[in-house]
């Protein structure tokens, strides 16, 4: 995003509510055992994909040879997603969605969200936004699902340089999920990027109320503090982020910020410190700061 994309963690992490794990509703009694068996096989594939994506892809391919249905293509999609092959994952999810439409499978919206996530991860924000629009047009979504899809669409808006639309979606998500720290973290990041530091401070305070030890939240708190020239607070927040996530992206970004801050301040107390790029992801990953 020119506000810089919130993208990295979204590319790697499963969605907060993963609708593909929910078996389709309403099988006939004689079909229930088959539906449960397929649901268990899909769950096993998802678990395998997190450990060995190539093995999950092979399992999905074998499954598709014998039963070219929704679950086989979901298995393939999860395998490709965990292997970082966003384009192939998107294609597999869309094949699953096509089959879900043909059979009135109730997982259609969740599958389309997964395809949208993969399109966004692959750099196709317009396609991703269109898919999120389709899902959000339904009046049958639970609040938690709608809120998470709004977060996804906000990222697509940001990727398309539409900060106003992203802000609208984040405000709507705040109302639906007031106790979700990610809503407030992303709201704070966007507000900071738009130069609204007072609002960003309020949002990050709410995120910290919900989880004061989250490294991504602490990293963003430091970024906002730098924008307010509160160097001591920024240093404290980044030190805590580094300690909480020493080997992860948020901790590493915090350490880089601390090094740059120390170097800039060493040049003299009146030297302005430029705003770092900070957290632009949908989880615990962080973009490389560039103060």
Q: Which bin fits the share of residues in helices? A: 55-70%
> Poorly predicted ranges (pLDDT <50, ≥5 residues)?
1-17, 19-23, 275-291
Q: In terms of structural class, how would the helical and strand content be classed?
A: mainly alpha
Q: Helical stretch count?
A: 14
Mean of residue pLDDT values? 85
Amino-to-carboxy terminus distance: 17 Å
Please state the oligomeric state of the protein chains shown.
single chain
Total strands: the figure is 0
Q: Tell me what portion of residues adopts beta-strand conformation.
A: under 5%
Q: Using only CA atoms, what is the Rg?
A: 21 Å
**Which descriptor suits the 3D outline?**
elongated
Instruction: State the order of secondary-structure elements, H for helix, E for strand.
Output: HHHHHHHHHHHHHH
The largest sheet, given as strand count, sense and whether it forms a barrel, is: none
Describe this structure as you would to a colleague.
- By secondary structure, the chain is mainly α.
- The protein contains 14 helices and no strands.
- α3 (about 55-65) packs antiparallel against α4 (about 70-80).
- The longest helix is centred in the N-terminal third of the chain and has 20 residues, at about 30-50.
- It is elongated and about 70 Å long.
Short description:
With 291 residues, the chain is mainly α. It has helices at residues 8-12, 32-51, 53-66, 70-82, 86-102, 108-121, 125-136, 143-159, 163-176, 181-193, 197-210, 215-227, 231-244, 249-266.
């Amino acid at each position: 995003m020119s506000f810089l994309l919130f993208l990295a963690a979204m590319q790697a992490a499963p969605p907060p509510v993963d609708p593909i794990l929910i078996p389709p509703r309403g099988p006939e009694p004689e079909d229930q055992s088959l539906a449960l068996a397929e649901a268990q096989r899909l769950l096993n594939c998802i678990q395998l994909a997190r450990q060995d994506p190539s093995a999950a892809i092979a399992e999905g391919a074998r499954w598709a040879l014998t039963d070219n249905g929704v679950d086989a293509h979901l298995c393939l999609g999860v395998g490709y997603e965990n292997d970082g092959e966003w384009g192939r994952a998107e294609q597999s999810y869309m094949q699953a969605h096509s089959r879900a439409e043909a059979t009135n499978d109730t997982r259609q919206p969740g599958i389309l969200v997964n395809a949208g996530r993969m399109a966004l991860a692959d750099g196709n924000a317009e396609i991703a936004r269109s898919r999120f629009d389709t899902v959000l047009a339904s009046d049958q979504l639970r609040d938690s699902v709608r809120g998470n899809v709004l977060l996804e669409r906000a990222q697509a808006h940001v990727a398309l340089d539409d900060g106003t639309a992203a802000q609208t979606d984040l405000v709507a998500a705040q109302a639906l999920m007031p106790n979700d720290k990610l809503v407030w973290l992303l709201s704070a990041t966007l507000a900071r990027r738009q130069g609204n530091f007072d609002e960003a401070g309020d949002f990050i305070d709410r995120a910290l109320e919900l989880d004061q030890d989250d490294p991504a939240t602490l990293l963003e708190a430091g970024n906002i503090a730098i924008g307010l020239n509160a160097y001591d607070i920024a240093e404290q927040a980044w030190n805590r982020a580094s300690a909480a996530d020493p080997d992860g992206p948020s901790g590493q970004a915090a350490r880089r910020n601390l090094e740059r801050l120390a170097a800039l301040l060493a040049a003299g107390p009146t030297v302005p410190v430029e705003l770092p790029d900070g957290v632009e992801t949908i989880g615990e990953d962080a973009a490389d700061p560039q103060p």
